[in-house]
Design goal:
alpha/beta, ABC transporter transmembrane region fold, Rossmann fold, 3 domains, 6-stranded mixed beta sheet, 4-stranded antiparallel beta sheet, 20 helices
Length: about 675
């Protein structure tokens, strides 16, 4: 037998070594996941049995506070129903004792049954009351839980929507926000777990009270029976926690292999390059290693289970021996001993449930703590409310010696930049990737706040302006635009979301009587915006026109090409009808003919009095700009109209000439031969 065990251990060790080697070859080591959910996913398994009970008052108080804020009447109903169940449970045990007393009394059987009948009726009534109270608790908890979750979600989303972009882009805050999102679900789960805790406590209290009434010595025996089971549960959980921590990265490696074997995007290389067999080989090795670990855990849990069951069995044997001694010595009756057995079973079940529910509640409370911390940070870094009103776009925006550094960077993205933007002008921001063009545009739009310098709107520092008013003057046409999973109509009207004053819950372009999309009858402004951006032809080809869902993930949804999406985004900006248009690579996905037409429309916006900030690498389009600013590593290195910059023969002229040279070759010219 010993050699078999050694052989089994050797095979397991070999399988584990091969699995680790596969992970090292493919991923270079452990695959740690940067997702906040895993911050606390197994934290409850670190608790000892004593820690579990120490956390109890704080966890219940936290849940009560959430429930009280969400729905006081529902919370009071849950509390009353759970307390009532405990009282009816205790009454049922005492009534059962009276039934047994009557049945075990002296005299003819019919007389004994008649004497026990009132107590039997009391047991039945208490059982019915318990069922009714349980139903009431379920209904109240079902009403309470979604309200708590909704309140938490709405609160978090409201605060996040108002937080400064600098904070939102901070890596630590993003991880905290991910965990906080789980905290909204945790708020609901904590209600259910807390109800379970209260139920278990009341059951335990009822059983303890009955046992104390029957004989005080029975109460410590109840605890003695339950402690080994609780110890075993916590020990198994901690062992699995350590295993999870050691193997979680390997599990992610397996998941990555499984995903790419089934993913549509990698399907071509899996087949053509023969990657499938290679990945399967490593997947099998990793799976075998994981199986060896699971087998080890199963054996260890079996040993723990046998130990805890043996100890609990010995405690039960001692308890029943004490019960027997109490009966034989006349210290308690046979009926009382029968009731004690029922009370012990009720109490042990309640104590076991209590340990499980407290551990679950503790884990959820950690996510809830992250939720509360995220809310506090959102409040601390929220966009200020109020300020100087902005009723119309200023005649001039002045950027004075502005600098900005991203939170995770040492070098500034914008370094001492100054420029002037007049109403009705087109200015072009030009430079290589990473030169700071997009960052500067976001500073002008009010999305970022300068670290140094200031931005003036007609002489007023934009820090003093009402930011909501400022944002209302700006429209964004970004190369990283949002493809909203909404209808075509909603994807354009979301450029300036609004509600009907007569029907505040009715979205634009909807029938006021039903609030549903008006099939084929869009808002005239939608049609005008789509026609302006030449997106009307895209919409006409959609199966349901304006009401087509633009997300192929759902039934009836469709997928648009990059160029089609870019037309919709241009229409979205047109629908917004803002005074300042920030166009960041607005034509990157358009064909040549559509690109020329799009830039002509951008020129017409400025002619109509709107101001345009154009960011593009296609310098042929910058000729239409009134003023061009050239950036390099966050610094302004030259500026002026196109003709002046070409005459200066500086960096802009070099970039422009380099691009123009690419098109100077005749179409039928032979390419350079390879060496």
């Amino acid at each position: 037998m010993a050699w078999r065990r050694r052989r089994r251990r050797d095979r397991a060790a070999e399988a584990i070594a091969e699995g680790v080697a596969s992970g090292q070859e493919l991923f270079g080591g452990n695959l740690e996941m940067d997702h906040a959910y895993y911050r606390h996913n197994t934290a409850h398994l670190e608790l000892t049995l004593l820690d579990t009970f120490r956390q109890l008052p704080r966890l219940v108080a936290q849940s009560v506070r959430l429930a009280w804020q969400a729905d006081r009447s529902a919370m009071l109903m849950v509390a009353a129903a759970e307390l009532g169940q405990g009282l009816t449970g205790a009454f049922s045990l005492l009534a059962t004792n009276q039934v047994l007393v009557g049945l075990f009394a002296q005299g003819p059987t019919p007389d004994r049954v008649r004497n026990a009948l009132p107590a039997l009726i009391a047991v039945a009534i208490s059982g019915a009351l318990t069922a009714v109270l349980h139903a009431l608790s379920t209904v109240a908890a079902g009403r309470l839980e979604p309200k708590v979750e909704r309140a938490a979600e709405v609160t978090l989303m409201t605060k996040v929507a108002r937080v400064e972009m600098r904070t939102l882009e901070d890596g630590d805050f993003k991880r905290l926000l991910q965990s906080a999102a789980w905290g909204t679900d945790a708020s609901r789960r904590m209600i259910g777990h807390s109800v379970g805790i209260v139920n278990a406590l009341i059951s335990l209290a009822a059983a303890s009270a009955v046992l104390t009434v029957l004989h005080p010595i029975l109460l410590p025996l109840l605890i003695l029976i339950t402690l080994p089971q609780a110890w075993g549960a916590v020990r198994d959980a901690r062992r699995r926690y350590r295993s999870t921590q050691a193997w979680i990265d390997h599990g992610r490696q397996q998941s990555e292999l499984s995903w790419h074997l089934k993913d549509r995007n990698s399907a071509q290389e899996v087949r053509v390059h023969g990657v499938g067999a290679y990945l399967l080989h490593h997947y099998r090795r990793m799976a075998a290693a994981r199986e060896a670990e699971e087998t080890r855990l199963a054996r260890a849990e079996a040993v723990t289970g046998l130990t805890s069951s043996s100890l609990s069995g010995m405690a039960s044997l001692l308890t029943y021996a004490v019960l027997g001694w109490l009966v034989l010595s006349g210290r308690t009756g046979l009926a009382a001993s029968g009731t004690a057995v029922l009370a012990i079973r009720t109490g042990t079940g309640g104590l076991s449930r209590l340990v499980t529910e407290v551990q679950a509640t503790y884990r959820q409370s950690l996510y809830l703590a992250d939720y509360e911390r995220a809310c506090r940070l959102c409040d601390k870094h929220a966009i200020p409310e109020g300020g100087v009103p902005v009723s119309e776009f200023p005649a001039r925006i002045t950027v004075e010696n502005v600098s900005y550094t991203y939170p995770d960077r040492e070098k500034p993205a914008i370094d001492g930049v100054s420029l002037t933007l007049n109403r009705g002008e087109i200015i072009a921001l030009v430079g290589e990737n990473g030169s700071g063009k997009t960052t500067l545009a976001k500073l002008i739009a009010g999305l970022y706040r300068p670290d140094d310098g200031r931005i003036l709107w007609d002489g007023t520092d934009d820090n003093d302006l009402n930011r909501d008013d400022l944002f209302s003057q700006v429209a964004l046409v970004s190369q990283s635009f949002t493809e909203w999973p909404f209808t075509a109509a909603a994807n354009i009207s979301i450029g300036r979301p609004r509600t009907s004053p007569e029907h505040p819950d009715t979205p634009p372009g909807s029938r006021p009587d039903t609030g549903k999309p008006a099939l084929g009858i869009p808002d005239p402004r939608l049609s005008s915006a789509a026609e302006y951006a030449e997106a009307d032809s895209v919409i006409d080809e959609l199966p349901k026109g304006w009401d087509t869902l633009l997300d192929r993930s759902y039934v009836g949804g469709v997928a648009l090409s990059g160029g089609q999406w870019q037309r919709l985004v241009l229409a979205r900006a047109r629908y917004r009808d803002a005074a300042l248009i920030i166009a960041d690579e607005p034509t990157s996905a358009l064909d040549a003919r559509s690109e020329i037409a799009a830039f002509a429309k951008i020129r017409s916006l400025a002619d109509a009095g709107q101001t345009v900030i154009l960011i593009t690498h296609r310098l042929a389009s910058t000729r239409l700009a009134d003023h061009i600013y050239v950036l390099d590593h966050g610094r302004l290195i030259e500026h002026g109209p196109h003709t002046d910059l070409m005459t200066a023969n500086g960096p802009y002229a070099d970039m422009y000439t380099l691009q123009a040279t690419q098109y100077a070759t005749a179409p039928d010219a032979e390419p350079d031969s390879r060496p």
